[in-house]
Amino acid sequence: MRLRVEAKGGLQGRIKVPGDKSISHRSVMLGSLAEGKTEIEGFLTGEDCLSTVKAFQDMGVKIEGVGTDQMVVHGVGLRGLKEPKDLLDFGNSGTTTRLMLGILAGQKFYSVATGDDSLKSRPMARVTKPLSTMGGEFYGRDNANLLPITVVGQGELNSISYDSPVASAQVKSAVLLAGLYGEGVTEVREPAKSRDHTERMLEYFGANIEVDGLAVKVEGNPKLTGKKVVVPGDISSAAFLMVAAMITEGSEIIIENVGLNPTRDGVIEALRKMKGNFELLNQREVNGEPIADIKVKSSQLKGTIIDGDLIPLLIDEIPILAVAASQAEGKTIIKDAEELRVKETDRIDAMVKELTRLGVEVKEREDGMEIVGKQQITGGVTCQSYHDHRIAMSMAVAGLIAEGAVEVEGAECINISFPNFKELLDSLSK
User: Fold this and answer.
1) 191 phi/psi in degrees, rounded to 5
2) What residues have CB less than 8 Å from 117, skipping those under 6 apart?
3) Cα(157)–Cα(314) distance, rounded to whole angstroms?
4) Are 183 and 156 in contact (CB under 8 A)?
5) Whole-structure pTM value
6) What is the C-alpha separation between 410 and 92, in angstroms, rounded?
7) Which of 90, 103, 272, 357 sits between 20 and 30 A of 402, alpha carbons compared?
8) Residue tagged active-site, from 307, 316, 336, 426
9) Cα(66)–Cα(54) distance, integer angstroms
10) Are 181 and 220 in contact, with CB atoms under 8 Å apart?
11) Total Cβ atoms within 10 A of residue 135
12) pLDDT for the residue numbered 430
């Protein structure tokens, strides 16, 4: 599918973005492992999250309302999953895969995890190695680094104390979820703080969690109880519309009910550093997660440096921040972001190529990029999505201020996280 975007006048209106992807995944996972019923409101119906739903259905969990944003998960308890009759296909979802490997390691059955071609190229050893030290048994290509991966469930795992070499919510979550199947306490320590949705939701569902700085501990064999989960709007999705409004003259929009988890709101800090014109309204908390409405206006952006401990808090927003940087005064440097090279695609390489195609002066770094600001976006070009939803949406936002139409090839991948992206963008036009 090709998405065609043309320059627009100022963006105006009030909108809601789809539910938070990370919280949607975890609500189904923990709802399935809990005892009793979990009602989910605001679930993201993107393809990645539906991969998680399908996996648990394949393991015997009854889930009502699939395909809508209101679902009911009938939990089977920590040890109530059933052996799947076929491969567990996780589609394009790295989150589903890495977290599920932790859960599958603790089951008493055999399973095989697979996915699409993109997912089959993404590294899994970062989770299979620590999970193996817990007694998990994995077999697959490149020494269980690449899908398909066979998991021979052990039923019981060993508790460990693990020093993660990377600040990664997926690695931390895989070990913590496996820790539910261990005797005693499992601990994960990180070099920097990564997203904490897993530990927040584990505690909400009744697990015994202890957070001490960069260390998180979970006690094994908890009794998880079904809950009502309200999924806030995804800050990663909101970021695309925030930047769209900032770089388009005459814009003023309000994005309602956006999640502002402190381990996810790095894009807020980055856009503040860039002098973005926005404010947070009606700040409140829902099921342990802070949320707010965000009012955004056209902005005179300034170049900045985005690096260090801020990077894990905005790793998914870097592609759209690169588009913002192309319209900022001065140079923006993004560094310490090597993690971008092992996302859905090598996002550093992809963004450098596509920004260059759009006429932006950009220099690739091993750990990021340098972008010269105040650049005129060239129109009349076709950009590639690399089957990566965040690259596709970033190119579409750039097209809002291009000299001519910008087309994005392979734009169907946007459905992974933001199924109504084009419709919402069109609704904001004057």
Assistant:
1) -75, -25
2) none
3) 33
4) yes
5) 0.82
6) 14
7) 272
8) 316
9) 9
10) yes
11) 18
12) 59
